[in-house]
Amino acid sequence: LFLILAMPPKAKKEAKPKTQPEGATKFGPMPESYLKKQKTVAALNAKLAAKATVDAKKRKQTRSEITKRAAKYHKEYKSTAENLVRMRREAKSYGNFFVEDEPKVLLVVRIRGINAVEPRTTKILQLLRLRQIHNAVFLRCNKATLNMLRLVAPYVTYGSPNLKTVKDLVYKRGFGKVNKQRIPITDNSVVESVLGKKGLICVEDVIHEIFTCGDNFKEANNFLWPFKLSSPLGGLNKKRIS
User: Fold this and answer.
1) Nearest to 212 by CA among 160, 177, 173
2) CA 177 and chain centroid, separation
3) Are the C-beta atoms of residues 117 and 140 closer than 8 Å to each other?
């Protein structure tokens, strides 16, 4: 009895924690399809996060470039206006007349409707993109354009726009042609998506091309949808057929 009591107690084996396979829960292993979906979603989120970082950096660079271009155009417009005033004063001081350059761009507005319009006039107005009354478009001033305008003179009025007129039309009434649809120009991305390959990335680029009749005038003008103007209050004064 003494020997039995003196024997040391047997050491208890430590219980090893039970390991569960990857993706297993207390209710059992997760379906393979659910694990595959988790990995796909994680990879997609990582890809979207990387793309968002790159896009944010690109937007920052684009905003900086747009600011530089706007400042450059403002300086150019100011310099042109100052030179024009200086040359007028010089001519006046010498007792001469200063003859300005001929306009490069015309703003054409349709002032008559579709009643009793002959086929040739209808076709010319369609070519000028003036399908409705009070539509307005920009046109390059050349011999062909002036000949067409003379043929439809009773139906349109036109003149050379200044910088303020061009800006007001584009900013307040501007719509762009995106995938043959009339989309309002509410963001510079609308311009960049269509004219980015031509180096035009913002609204100020479009205004500069239109006002100065630049190399990309045709593309910028085709991008702009014909402006739809409101009817004048009280109607047009002295609206006659010449």
Assistant:
1) 160
2) 10
3) no
Cα 79 to Cα 208: distance, rounded to the nearest angstrom: 14
Q: Around 177, how many Cα atoms within 13 Å sit in the side-chain half-sphere? A: 10
pTM given for the model: 0.76
Give burial (CB, 10 Å; 0-12/13-18/19+) of 54.
exposed
* pLDDT tens digits along 163-208: 999 999 999 999 999 999 999 999 999 999 999 999 999 999 999 9
Contacts of 215 (CB under 8 A, 6+ apart): 209
Q: Can you spell out the DSSP letters for 102-155?
A: PPSEEEEEE-S-STT--HHHHHHHHHTT--STTEEEEEE-SHHHHHHHHHTGGG
Ranges of H-type helices in 1-31: 2-6
